Amino acid sequence: MLVFGTADFADIVTNLIENSLKSEIAAYVLDDNYIEENSLKYNNKPIVRTSDVYRLYPPNEYDITIGFIGTKMFKVRAEKLQLFKNLGYDLPNLIHQTSVISTYQMGYGNIILENCVISYGTNFGNGNIMWPNSSINHHNIVGNYNNISPSVSTSGGVIIGNNCFLGNNSTYKNKVIVADYSFIGAGSYISKNTDKFGVYVPQRTVKLEGKTSFDFK
Prior knowledge:
15% of the residues lie in helices and 24% in strands. It is an alpha/beta fold. It has helices spanning 8-20, 50-56, 75-86, and strands at 2-4, 27-30, 41-42, 45-49, 64-66, 94-95, 100-101, 105-106, 111-112, 117-118, 123-124, 129-130, 135-136, 141-142, 147-148, 153-154, 159-160, 165-166, 171-172, 177-178, 183-184, 189-190, 199-200. The protein is built from 3 helices and 23 strands. The termini are far apart.
């Protein structure tokens, strides 16, 4: 297995591959302009340039996963995933052994971390990241390249588009549609369809002035 990336999320993916899936990482991959000559190893594995990976680690012998989250609402992540797909690499779904998956259909290149649930009747696309303790309920449709943060919870029949950010502990009413590139802040309750490129946040937590924690029994 190859991992594209060498930052925090690459370490999380490494832990998933080695400790949950009991597989082995052969090398890490970086774009040529990100490699420094004095830094050619990561986690005691070689770092290979994108321009060299096809020659040194051919797709008929190695799979690859995208070990970074990416900017611009995950467009960069999508571009890298498609690049390696076009080169002929398989991008397997990496699913932690504690997660429960009952989908109709799942694409490729998804990373699903600890204690997640994807319930019966759900279609799950490509290149999504699903963080711990999230729950996608029955008969949902999840598109591509979404970041599903810890403890997200959807009701039945929810549709999530592409390139969305679903913040920690956000909750989704049954049958709502989350449009492409929606940004949902932590703790939000989405009861109506969102707009493309829309940003949704809950009311702010405020400090109670004149009170201390000892005022409450």
